[in-house]
Write a structure and sequence with these properties.
Layout: H1 5-10, H2 16-24, H3 29-38, H4 46-69, H5 81-88, H6 91-96, H7 112-128, H8 130-137, H9 140-149, H10 156-167, H11 182-188, H12 191-205, H13 218-227, H14 233-242, H15 247-256, H16 267-275, H17 281-297, H18 311-315, H19 325-347, H20 352-361, H21 364-376, H22 398-414, H23 426-438, H24 445-448, H25 462-472, H26 479-491, H27 497-504, H28 508-518, H29 524-538, H30 542-551, H31 555-567, H32 569-586, H33 589-594, H34 596-602, H35 604-616, H36 628-643, H37 647-660, H38 666-682, H39 686-696, H40 700-710
Length: about 750
């Protein structure tokens, strides 16, 4: 609890404050704050105030730096006595009087250096004392006012750093529309400032984290969406950004601009040394700004480069010898991480098509392709960290974060969108056309409509480059997860034989099988991504199944493959779905003899075994975005059975399984509830239904019809689940779908 202003200074009479200061080891901070407060009145000499603030700043900055360099998890408030004393005696309030209009000081007379030091003092307090950050975050007027300070280049970094810290703890996301003249502010930024501003924007356009997405049930999410049907604040902020003229174009330029290539022999170690104490991109900027100011005083060189400057002017400057080359590279990498994150979030938003059109127009993909070998994947970077979700905080090194963000962007860009062909170059597009012609099938419309002027340049497109580095990755590297997701997104949607053959010709199937069977990979995330990719690569493609049989050429290999599939059906069920769908499409005895995988799935007892387990591992309360695919795979098996008039046989088999396991009604009651949820979930979501139809080549009307038949109330119907549950075990009326 803070001491009142009167209490803070009233006890100074009689030397009590000085005496207490010595015993408590306050380092004269209360006395300095009193002098600073007295200097904040109108007509005071602000040079005196600035001198007091500088002394106070030196006390706080040492503690803030120790917080940045030490393990934050073990840091306690008692570790930062100077910051605690500064806050206790009203240091935050008195500092604000030099910043905010309509306080005691005539702000127009406050010089930039004083404002800069006030901001630094506040930031140092926020670093060490969370209560200060939360207090400032609760003042909406102050938060919006801070954005107006960003117009001044001299105070930009300090302002941006403080805003980022405050927004990180703010309970409610700010409205970007509320920032005075936001469009003019953003347009006034140079490219360096805009990159740093992206770090702030990322907090304002991402949906708030409420835990791991995969562990949030669909039941809870659906209930939340029902309560909040209007666009979220993050979605509104995304629209606000897209309406700023030139915003996306400038981000594309930032994402694709080049940096100097020269690095020292021990670059990786040097980079890690920098990263151990550089808290974030803004801290790094501050360090570079200090070096710039020092150079300016000596009339050496200014780092304030115009947008047209390239890396050569920086590399040849005298200042270059003061800053390690690796530092300049990591500087650019950290910028690009923030820019790619913002672009990725916008790509996944409601304005996806608008963003896609702009990214294509401003040649983001060809630009990234040109950077791939020289910057993005110029060297191997070890990565065995835990796979993070899209909005999760990541403590990875800059290089690892950069690679992951790049792969996330590719995944979002390719997923169910015709612009995916921009990841290829002209020769590769011609190859796709030739594959279609040889197979005597029409080219897909998206390929025909691709603007050749917007595709990748050079000998290889971005997708081909990605495949090359994917094959060199160690088995358990978490990069494999994101690489597989990016390649899979290229295949997702309506199945394209030409797309599959393009990847098969580059040895992708053999590489995936090696990773699953022979590499010793144990990462469930990586294995799941490879199962999903394998499913998309093989679906409806007889050539792929023949290649599978050629690689899996011994009973031992096939057993290992099945063991991997059966070890976690949540991870492998998309591949199971692919095999079942392909088997139904081929329907030829000679085909079954050519592939052990198809002949295995052709045996009805094996399909039933998968069906039992798929239904048994999920229920309405535990359904998530991660495991709902198990429900859809079980439905695919039953839809195909229904087409052949074998649905009663499968339902009766489920009933017999219940009695064998001595749990009559358990499996079928659970499945009935799951299908009721399915109706509520999918019949109101156009995108999900489109995905189901495209991925299965089964009209969504047939999905709906099959579910309705299975849920039919007529106990005389041989296709209704209710007919197979004996009356004493009937539990269909209980509504488990309400939250």
């Amino acid at each position: 609890m803070h001491v009142s202003w009167e209490g803070r200074w009233g006890w100074r009479r009689g030397g009590l404050l000085q005496e207490r200061d010595k015993r408590a080891k306050w380092n004269g901070i209360p006395n300095l704050l009193q002098k600073l407060h007295e200097s904040s009145h109108p007509n005071s000499d602000l040079s005196h105030a600035h001198s007091f603030l500088k002394v106070l700043s030196s006390h706080l900055s040492m503690e803030a730096m120790s917080f940045v360099t030490e393990d934050r998890k073990t840091a306690q408030e008692s570790t930062f006595p100077n910051t605690h004393t500064f806050d206790l005696f009203g240091g935050v309030d008195v500092s604000l009087t030099f910043l905010i209009p309509d306080t005691n000081v005539c702000v127009t007379t406050v010089n930039d250096d004083l404002v800069k030091d006030c901001l630094s003092v506040l930031y140092n307090c926020c670093i060490c004392t969370e209560g200060v950050t939360k207090s400032l975050a609760s003042r909406d007027d102050f938060v919006l006012f801070l954005f107006t300070l960003m117009t001044n280049k001299k105070t930009f970094l300090q302002t941006a750093t403080l805003i980022e810290d405050i927004l990180g703890v703010k309970k409610e996301m700010i409205h970007l529309e509320g920032i005075p003249n936001l469009s003019g502010l953003v347009q006034s930024f140079d490219q360096q400032q805009l990159a740093n501003f992206c770090r702030i924007l990322s907090v304002t356009i991402s949906e708030p984290d409420v835990g791991n997405d995969d562990k949030h049930t669909l039941l809870a999410k659906n209930a939340q969406q029902k309560r909040n049907s209007s666009p979220s604040r993050a979605e509104v902020n995304q629209v606000t950004l897209l309406n700023i003229p030139g915003f996306i174009e400038r981000l594309c330029k930032l994402a694709t601009r080049k940096v100097s290539e020269a690095t020292g022999a021990n670059f990786l170690q040097e980079l890690e040394d920098w990263y151990t104490w550089l808290d974030n991109a803004l801290v790094l900027d501050a360090l570079m700004q200090m070096a710039t100011e020092e150079a300016e005083q000596s009339n050496i060189f200014s780092l304030s480069l115009p947008e047209s400057s390239d890396e050569s002017s920086l590399a040849t400057s005298p200042l270059r010898h003061r800053l390690p080359q690796s530092m300049k590279i990591v500087h650019e990498i950290m910028y690009k991480v923030e820019v790619l994150y913002v672009l990725c979030v916008l790509l996944m938003g409601r304005q996806r098509n608008q963003v896609h059109k702009m990214l294509a127009e401003f040649r983001l993909i060809p630009g990234l392709n040109n950077l791939f070998d020289k910057l993005i994947w110029r060297k191997y970077t070890a990565s065995n960290h835990v796979v993070h979700g899209q909005n999760e905080n990541c403590d990875c090194s800059p290089e690892i974060s950069f690679k992951i963000q790049f792969l996330r962007l590719l995944q979002s860009f390719s997923d169910h969108h015709e612009n995916k062909y921009l990841l290829l170059n002209s020769q590769e597009l011609n190859e796709l056309s030739a594959i279609s012609m040889k197979a005597n099938i029409p080219e897909v419309e998206a390929l025909v409509n691709t603007d050749r002027s917007l595709v990748c340049d050079g000998k290889k497109g971005l997708l081909t480059r990605l495949l090359a580095v994917m094959k060199r990755e160690p088995p358990d590297s978490s990069f494999r997860f994101w690489q597989a997701r990016a390649v899979e997104s290229f295949l997702r949607g309506a199945t394209s034989y030409a797309d599959q053959m393009f990847l098969l010709k580059r040895g992708l199937l053999e590489h995936i099988l090696f990773c699953i069977i022979d590499s010793g990979c144990t990462s469930r995330d990586v294995l799941q991504s490879y199962f999903d990719l394998l499913g998309e690569l093989m679906k409806f493609n007889i050539d792929a199944f023949k290649r599978f049989n050629k690689y899996v050429n011994t009973p031992e290999k096939f057993r290992t493959f099945l063991t991997q599939i059966n070890s976690s059906l949540v991870d492998s069920n998309m591949l199971v779905r692919c095999i079942v769908l392909s088997l139904d499409r081929f329907e030829m005895v000679e085909v079954l003899s050519e592939c052990c995988l198809l002949s295995y799935m052709a045996r009805v007892e094996n399909r039933l075994s998968f069906l039992f387990r798929l239904i048994n591992i999920i229920n309405v309360q535990t359904l998530t975005q991660e495991n709902v695919s198990c429900l859809n795979t079980s439905l695919v098996i039953l839809m195909l059975a229904r087409r052949k008039a074998k649905l009663p046989f499968y339902l009766n088999a489920l009933r017999e399984k219940e009695y064998t396991e001595k749990y009559p009604g358990c499996l079928l009651n659970n499945f009935h509830n799951l299908l009721r949820f399915w109706q509520r979930h999918y019949l109101n979501k156009d995108k999900d239904s489109t995905c189901l139809e495209n991925s299965s080549c089964i009209p969504f009307s047939y999905w709906k019809e099959t579910v309705s038949v299975l849920l039919g109330p007529d106990r005389t119907s041989l296709c209704a689940i209710a007919s197979y549950i004996d009356e004493p075990f009937m539990d269909l009326d209980r509504d488990l779908l309400e939250d």
